[in-house]
Amino acid sequence: MLRLNSVFGGLGLGLMGFYLGMAVAALLRWAFGYPEVWERDLNVSVGYCFGLIGWLMGVGMWGRWGREWFGLKTYPSPTKGWARYFTFNTDHKVIGIQYGVTFLIVFLLAGSLAMLIRAELAVNELQFFSKAQYNSLMSMHGILMVAVAVASVIGALGNYVVPLMIGAEDMAFPRLNALTFWLVPPTAVMLLATPFVGGLETGWTAYPPLSVVTQTGQTFFNLAIITFGLTSILGALNFIVTIIYMRAPGLTWGRLPVFVWAMFVTSWLALLYTQGFAVALLMVTLDRVGGMSFFDAANGGDPLLYQHVFWFYSHPAVYIMVIPGFGIALEVIAHFSRKPFYAYRYAVGAFMGILGLSGIVWAHHMFTSGMPNYLHGPFLMMTEAISIPTGLIFLCALGTIWMGRLWLTTPMLFAIAVIFNFACGGVTGIFLADVPTDIHLHDTYFVVAHFHYTIVGGEIFGLFAGLYYWFPKMTGRMYNERLAKLHFWWMFIGFNITFFVMHWPGIQGMNRRIADYPEAYQPVNLAVSLSAFLLGASFLVFFYNMINSWIRGPIAEANPWHARTLEWQTSSPPPLENFSSPPRVTGNPYDYGLPKPPHATFPQVAPAPAGGGGGGGGGGG
Amino acid sequence: MGAFNSLGAFQKGYVVAVFLAIVTIAEYFFAVGLANDQARFLGLAAAALVKAWLIVWYFMHVYRIWRAEEAH
Amino acid sequence: MAVHAPAEHAAHHNPLVLNRVGLWLFFFSESVIFGLLLSSRFFLEGIHQDHVDQVLGLVITIVLLLSSVTAFTAETAMEKGNSKLCSQMLLLTILLGIIFAGGVAYEWKTAHFTREEVFGTVFFTMTGIHASHVVSGIVFLAMAWNIARKGRFTSKSHWGISGTVMYWHFVDVVWVFFYPALYLVDS
Description:
Chain A is mostly helical.
């Protein structure tokens, strides 16, 4: 029998499904008497659905899960060897590494696209690309980076660390977890295929009417993003159930590490809002391939509907991106300040506040869209109100640092940088939330600078803090601290010059997403481009350090940071079942320097069922 | 309600189904017969919420989330 | 909860509890999709509606409602250990589901509007997405029936039936909102 449990099986069945689906669509069109059986967007869409199922089944879902639906016996995942990373594997630690490596590669790719964009923009007039090529480049950079921002921290660090932090042996739905990862490669393939079918012209926001009339690349984009939305939703569902039901005994909500709280809140956001993007793009797809009129004003449709539905997701999406970043920053700051977490309840409350407010601010992206004027005031107020919970998170971070005995390792530096960068991003955000200033600044480089400060400065710096912090746990090896510090300062300086300077052309009115600009903007753009190249080069240090340390780094100890939380109380990397004996949580995770019990103990399993007093074993902080 | 609780599991389902049918038919004649747009909209919304609640509670057993009955 | 008190771990990791909550979260998430479609209908068209076949609408609504009753009976029968009745009721549910889907298809074929008109756009999209859930529900019911036929479910362990039936009820709940919004709201 064919062994359908690797990427090769997935590719084979996926391609077969793709062609089968296209043929089925053609056959149906023929049967229903259409004049032409081949309509590229429609046939490709149907082919994609068939191909997606084929890919999933071929990559191992059939053997591990699908057979069960027909009452057949299933097979377990492999537990050893590198091949387990290339199959439908249900171990959350494997999935975390799969996500991490995949999205770092996507990050590298999307970052290279940014370098190309800056190369084109360094001097005015067109040098390297046509305007259509530039549009494609800019859209690809946008959507790939959005994917990285949405899924890298949640997928890689969340999957790897959350079950460890709550003392569980795995996620609540391990097979669903594997499914969420294996939906990512088809997404990537579809997005990377867009340049061959006309490219993307709309930017990652895909506004109609352009997205309805543009080339087939847009259909590929729609299918990819709908798939990616499914990944996000199913992953979020899994995190919520895991965090509610899989916590170790004694790990009450008040003792939960703050990163777990951040993941919990993020998961609710992803579960509730991701549909907006999927539904918006579904409508675009129906307008494109189904001949419908959602956005066709001539037939009574309304393009504004798209913006409402789209931003209904895409504003909460920035919190999906940035709350995990905050979570990592707070977590790392707490451990490296060596003192109890300041105002833990307020930090959790702030996350909740963001969760509550994020769904009612979306139209601040639409102040210039022509929506009714009476909506401006309420959305302005709501948007500004979000700075209250965000401010609480800042105060918690600063209060934890205050009078702490700081241990300035690389993760700590990145975490402090999150606080610094996001302050800049938050302040510039006020100008975009206020209607009078936003009408001037809308769609300029000021917006670009603002959201890079928040997302890169807030989340990607947090991602690096987390990657360095948990690198020894995930790989069992220690990274090179000198290179890591070099990476930090290089990236921090490059980032701040690039995007601080970028505000200036924005205030002057330089439009974003345009391949060319008037000569007056040239000097400042050259400066931005040069510092962007500086920023880009810093990641070479990062990738060198990561790859080299993973292969040749010194073996890491179980708890190199002397941290109290559960993930450090097991070996690096953890065994298959995570903990050799089930943990019992007895104290708060951040009580550094206090005469308090350790966060967790590992009572030996008592042989007798009742009363067996296997008093607290070792292994505390 | 006391008489309802004493019914068997099957019978409960049928009683709820009869209620659902009554609401559905009433909803239909209410909507077809009424000229006021706002009243019709609100009435339909109320009827839909009642029907949804009946299904969610009695057919989908939403309370099983927080009342773990599996011990039987 | 107090009835069974083994190790604290066991209660937490009861797969039935996890599955049930996971499925509810999935419904919660799906209802946002349907809610957005419903909102889009009112955003684009207000309460305006074109001519639809009221008799057909009422009949398929009652058919879907009946199928929920049969699905409920199937699950209750399995809880009581009557797997024969359960299988019969699952088949009856599938049959009623097919009648409903057929009714929608007939409505599409005889519609007085085209998909280029905005009412047609929202009508075909909403009924289409709902019908796709009905069809997938029929497939799930058939799979559950197939496993039930092999006698794999017991009165204690029948998540396959419960989950499928819950999904079917959820599809019914969606129609409870879509039916008045498409057929009754403007007359």
